[in-house]
Amino acid sequence: MKETELASQVDSLCTRDPTEFDHRVREEASWLVSAVEDGAFDSELATTGLEYECYVVDRENALTTLPRCTDEILGCEKEIGRHQIEFQSSPQPFSAAGLQTIESEMRARFEAASEELLDPEERLVSDGFWTISPQTETGVEYLTDHTTTDDTVLATNMCDTARYHAQGQSAATRIDAPNATYEGKTALLNSLTTSIQPHFVVEQASELPTYFRYALRVAGPILALGVNSPLFPPAFYDDVDGETILDGARMENRIGVFESVMNDEDGPAKVAFPEDIESVGDAVESIASDPTIVPRLFEDPSALTHFTHKHGCYWRWVRPVFDEGVMGEPNVRIEFRPLAGQPTLGDTIAFVGLFAGLLTDLARREHPVSRLDWADARRNFYAAATDGLSADLRWIDRSGDRVTDTDALYADLFACARAGLETAGFDADYADDLLAPLESRARTRQTPARWKLDQARSRLDEGASLDRAVRETQRRYIRRQAATFETDRFTAW
């Protein structure tokens, strides 16, 4: 697309009066609440799904860009950065066969994209952050390079989709992390991060508030297991020594980056830990009343076209999804968005099973953790993002006892997840094998983020500069992933 055409589209999105769009969203939201009450969004069985983002590197493990459109490959979509790609699984029954199908689909998507889009010496990386900049520029230069056309700022390395460029026009577009601060002009700063996003369909849609409440209570403990973005590209760091940077590192920087880049300092937060909901109407209202950006009027819309478009910029870390079934059956599901990309495919599938197993069992047994205050659930979430498995987390176990001991918390959490898997028909041995890599993380306190920090610190101790320590750590991460991604788990590292 020509730059002038893209700038015109972005300007149109940013200056369009949202009144008619918001009116249509309200009309569709009203229909949606009634349809859910009538059972139109109930599902015959629980299903799961997965969105999987990754980035591409060259033979030197430096970031590089994709050569052409990713939409030509089944199950692949553009992401905000030209170095990124997103894979999507088809919905699958929550069963052993269903999880195995998701794993097979993801393996096939990775292989197809690698064969059709990449040069032989390039590879896709599953990770939380990239840290080795392109060979010709620093990470800061790559993420902040831009042009200005008719007063519209366009990020040079952002994909040519107008809504991505428009999303950052009213955002803060800054990084504010310990020892890493930067003021940018576009939302491309978000493309430091890549993630995995498990989905879980609620069979009886009217029960969404119960499942959503449990999803918020497990968000912190699950996030603590999956942290994988403690290091920035070195060019983003302030002028402080390497030890200070490693000592102050957050275990999951992608949480803070997405919030500080996309939230408007003068308005309500769009990226946030969500509130509890008391009804389906509350969930629908939270989406409909979210501040509107990139409004668009559609010709020949279906029942939820404008509402769904609004939902695309509703960036809560756990969010309800109302799918009218244009590409399948109508359903209501919960999307779990905090998790970074993981070292191996097996670890990723383990998180899909853990999330679905927990929601299945906690709701079935009316687990007492539902009584954990929302403020404590929110505190758990941000503590996990900061400290990973070293965080002080709060929990209520199956007996109703308040728990702060990490081992006791995870013993209860994994017992419930295993019970949920078995309730869904999983063989006990399969359930044990599925959860084993995550139980090992809890037992040893070894997460991908901790592994990276240990690697970087070892290199600093040997006399390496911070820049070299970060680069060598990332190269070793990519080498280990290349050897284990499809066939092993992070525990083998």
CATH level-3 fold name:
Creatine Kinase, Chain A, domain 2
Q: Briefly, what CATH class?
A: Alpha Beta
Radius of gyration, in Å, reads 22 Å
Outline the low-pLDDT stretches.
none
Provide the succession of SSEs. Answer: HHEEEEHEHEEHEEEHHHHHEEHHEEHHHH
Helix content: 40-55%
N- to C-terminal distance: 43 Å
* Structural class determined from secondary elements: alpha+beta
Assess the beta-strand content as a share of residues: 5-15%
Number of discrete helical segments: 16
**Structurally, how many domains make up the residues?**
1
GO molecular function: ligase activity, forming carbon-nitrogen bonds
Protein name: Glutamate--cysteine ligase
InterPro entries: GCL_type2/YbdK_subfam, GCS2, Gln_synth/guanido_kin_cat_dom
Task: Walk me through what this model shows.
With 493 residues, the protein is α+β, with helices and mostly antiparallel strands. It has a single domain, classed as Creatine Kinase, Chain A, domain 2, CATH 3.30.590. 45% of the residues lie in helices and 13% in strands. The chain contains 16 helices and 14 strands. It is globular, with a radius of gyration of 22 Å. It holds the Pfam family GCS2.
